[in-house]
Amino acid sequence: GINAEYGKQWYQRRVREAVVSTQSTGDNGLARTPPMGWLNWERYRCNTDCKNDPNNCISADLFLTMAKLMKYEGYADVGYQYVNIDDCWMERERGSDGKLVPNPELFPNGIAALADAIHALGLKIGIYEDYGTHTCGGFPGTRGHIEDDVDLFAKWGIDSLKLDGCYCNVSEFATGYPAVSKALNATGRPILYSCSWPAYLSDKDHVPYGAMAESCNLWRNYADIQDSWSSVANIINWFGDNHGNLASFAGPGNWNDPDMLIIGDFGLSFDQSQTQMAIWSMMAAPLYMSNDLRTMEQWQKEILMNQEVIAVDQDPLGKTRSPSFPGQ
User: Fold this and answer.
1) 322 falls in which pLDDT band (50, 70, 90)?
2) CB atoms closer than 10 angstroms to residue 96
3) pLDDT value at position 2?
4) Whole-model pTM?
5) Which residues are marked as active site?
6) Fewest C-beta in 10 Å: which of 40, 91, 199, 257?
7) Distance CA 248, CA 237 (A)
8) Are residues 100 and 88 in contact, defined by beta-carbon separation less than 8 angstroms?
């Protein structure tokens, strides 16, 4: 097993180590280092009830507020760049023209207006879809609409797409995820591509990471993170056990994604927060916070903005280290 004290030792000792890699590049030129930013899912889930919970519903106001805090409280200065919208942002049905429709109660001015506002802050915006018939929350999936959907995202000014894998036969992933990659590149707009491909495969020993690396900038490997130390520890142990299958495919343009940083939420102590930040950085993982930047304690900010630790994560050579602990 692992504990926070071992993680603290890592935090103090390993941040000074250099990392090297000889990985090839991705074909869209993006994510040369692991992307950093903010993602609403773990903290806010599918909260669309703006009438009764206006401060915590997934509205344009929430995303713009987080973007402003990233900009003006120093997160952007140390590398946090993407403000990512997850599931439940759209209407339950497509429009009469077949296009996706943002929920007008959440996004009264549309997604493009929010994208413009976030771009004006010098940041980037991400959005969510699903390769299946529906998203995991039951909203319209991109099946049968790939080109139209990614063209719409490009028109809106989207900079990143997270593509989930609910309501879909996993046997179709090997053609579906690459098809979306080609469609994204065909838009002419640089759009970071996050795939959930491996997370849905039951045989974790035979995951086609080589094919994923040809299509995706990052991929969710394992279970969704929850707001608890046991969840973080479970993810760390899984990545440690599977490091040999993962490390050779990670590098500039391609990253394993152990899921969001939950520092600043309710489940982690000081030492546990340091542990997650240190180990995610040693794994060269994407650093996507999912928290309420309005209520952060100073010590939580300091962990998330520790430039020595971030430098390990953002090393341009991009080698991932195994999250194994002394005594394991």
Assistant:
1) confident
2) 7
3) 57
4) 0.91
5) 164, 224
6) 91
7) 18
8) no
- Residue 283 in tokens: 């794994």
Cβ pair 54, 277 in contact under 8 A: no
Quick: pLDDT tens for 43-90: 999 999 999 999 999 999 999 999 999 999 999 999 999 999 999 999
77 Cβ contact list (under 8 Å, min separation 6):
none
Joined together, the tokens standing for residue 284 give 């060269």
Closest of 204, 171, 148, 181 to residue 30, by C-alpha: 181
